[in-house]
Design a protein that fits this description.
Number of helices: 21
Helix content: 40-55%
CATH architecture of the largest domain: 3-Layer(aba) Sandwich
Strand content: 5-15%
Radius of gyration: 23 Å
Shape: globular
CATH class of the largest domain: Alpha Beta
CATH topology of the largest domain: Rossmann fold
Length: about 500
């Protein structure tokens, strides 16, 4: 009997994967509940292990199972949902998967499967090294934070390593709240041990024995899988005291956020972890020096910490070989919005936005022309077609006053009202500001009002001047990126799509 795989991650579940699994059980087959490979346009993707490799059928519903089982016995390629060998699907085959190399390969909670696919190789290498040697590997790899600011991870780690404090912490920012992003969630649901391994390595590097994963409450599947994975890793002595007989200790817990976008900002996250309201802290002091409970703290997001396990397993030079300029390694690109083939794409830095959207995304879901693309979440700029050939590189995007951020891409067709999108950016800031600083708290409210007056042709020219000045004040005077970057989408909409502000 062939082995069947059906994903158990959030996206597949939302599209009916549990019904497919139930239909397989009714047919006498107990499927392996794997993680998604990120080909969301094919979910639920049913994989079947055969003598010719793992073949796929998708998108599948429960009613398709009888026909698929018959096709597997006779002629699989004759079935209309047949996708061929999964590894050869062009969308997947052309990627450069480092962080997501194991995603979809098997049960994400199976430790044997994880180790069979080279899991914990990086940890074993790290256990034979000093903390400084581990930090040096991360520095040499060129890894930069994947949470948005793109700060070099090794420099942050060096700062924490050099602090003399006895108690230090590793905090994983898993409060993935940007629009069009799901890369963190896919790591946690498809390969949770990779994140756990990266956090243990971070602890060994800087001398921290306690870690926390700050997880957004809207991720119940990730919450369940992470807690189960932590329990199993502890039982197998990859967590806890005397890890693998090394004399080293690292403990890990999951803490749930409460639906506040601002807690994606590292200091606000730390306040929330301490049981306080999520309010941004003034810097300095930096969290690396005075972070959680006033102790030196590494705060990195899921993708950054997950990449560490790859770097320690394969070496800094191997990771450094991917990418361009100062953007090294691979980028988790998330295609969402009005897109025909949405999903997770992992590629080396340097691919252009046009290649991603046209070759992988295959254009809009609506079939209408693409008009604007927002990269980097709700605070990212709207990019017109003239900028789609920009390589996905931190410095290249900064040069056009845009940002890569967490790698989320949201596509809009030619029916979009860009004045409404600019208004939404200000309105989003109104709803999500922590309220600590005046430019963000009051500026966003005034921003909504001014855009409304512009669209209504109420003293239009003077209000356009006022909106630009308001954006300057928010950008230069806000305490954190919430208010400081809200002007990015507003300014880009004004610059590239001025006709939408003409009103009636």
């Amino acid at each position: 009997m062939s082995r069947f795989y059906i994903p158990q991650d959030t996206t597949a579940l939302a599209l009916g994967a549990d019904d497919v699994a139930a239909a397989l059980r009714s047919a006498g087959i107990e499927p392996v509940r794997n993680g998604s490979r990120g080909l969301f346009w094919l979910e639920p993707l049913l994989e079947v292990e055969t003598d010719q490799g793992r073949i796929g059928f998708g998108p599948v519903c429960a009613a398709d199972i009888a026909g698929i089982l018959e096709a597997v016995e006779n002629n699989a390629s004759a079935h209309p949902l047949y996708q061929g060998e999964v590894a050869e699907i062009p969308y997947l085959k052309s990627q450069q998967r480092l962080t997501y190399a194991r995603a979809g390969e098997g049960d994400p909670l199976c430790l044997d499967n994880y180790q069979r696919l080279d899991g914990f190789t990086g940890l074993r290498n790290a256990l034979a090294m000093s903390g400084q040697q581990i930090v040096d590997q991360v520095k040499e790899s060129g890894l930069r934070g994947r949470g948005g600011a793109a700060f070099p991870a090794g420099i942050k780690w060096q700062t924490v390593h050099d602090c003399a404090a006895g108690q230090k912490y590793i905090v994983c920012n898993a409060d993935e709240g940007d629009s069009g992003t799901f890369a963190d969630r896919l790591v946690m649901e498809a390969d949770p041990y990779q994140l756990i391994e990266g956090m243990i390595i971070a602890g060994l590097a800087v001398g921290a024995d306690q870690g926390y994963i700050y997880l957004r409450s809207e991720y119940p599947v990730a919450h369940k899988l992470l807690n189960a994975a932590i329990d199993r890793a502890t039982e197998a002595n990859f967590l806890g005291d005397n890890i693998q007989g090394s004399g080293k200790t690292f403990r890990l817990e999951v803490r749930l956020g409460a639906g506040a976008y601002i807690c994606g900002e590292e200091t606000s996250l730390l306040e929330s972890l301490e049981g306080k309201r999520g309010m941004v802290r003034a810097k300095p002091p930096l969290p690396a020096i005075e972070g959680l409970f006033g102790k030196p703290t590494v705060v990195n997001n899921v993708l950054t910490l997950a990449a560490v396990s790859t770097i320690l397993a394969q070496g800094a030079a191997a990771y450094q070989n991917f990418g361009m300029g100062r953007s090294r390694g691979t980028l988790a690109i998330q295609l969402a919005g009005n897109i025909k083939r949405g999903g997770l794409i992992e590629l080396a830095f340097g691919v252009t936005l046009r290649e991603v959207v046209e070759e992988y995304g295959q254009g809009t879901y609506s079939g209408r022309p693409i008009r604007a693309i927002q990269v980097g979440g709700p605070l990212g700029a709207f990019l017109p077609e003239s900028q789609w050939d920009t390589p996905m590189d931190y410095e290249a995007f900064a040069a056009i006053k845009a940002m890569i951020g967490h790698g989320g891409i949201v596509v809009f067709d030619d029916s979009v009202d860009m004045a409404a999108q600019a208004r939404f950016a200000m309105e989003f800031c109104v709803a999500e500001s922590c309220g600590k600083c005046t430019p963000c708290r009051i500026g966003s409210v005034r921003g909504v009002e001014v855009i409304d007056r512009i669209v209504a042709n109420d003293n239009r020219d003077n209000n356009l001047i006022l909106l630009h000045e308001l954006c300057d004040t928010m950008e230069m005077g806000s305490l954190c990126a919430m208010g400081g970057m809200t002007p990015f989408p507003v300014r880009s909409a004004l610059q590239h799509f001025p006709d939408d502000f003409a009103g009636n």
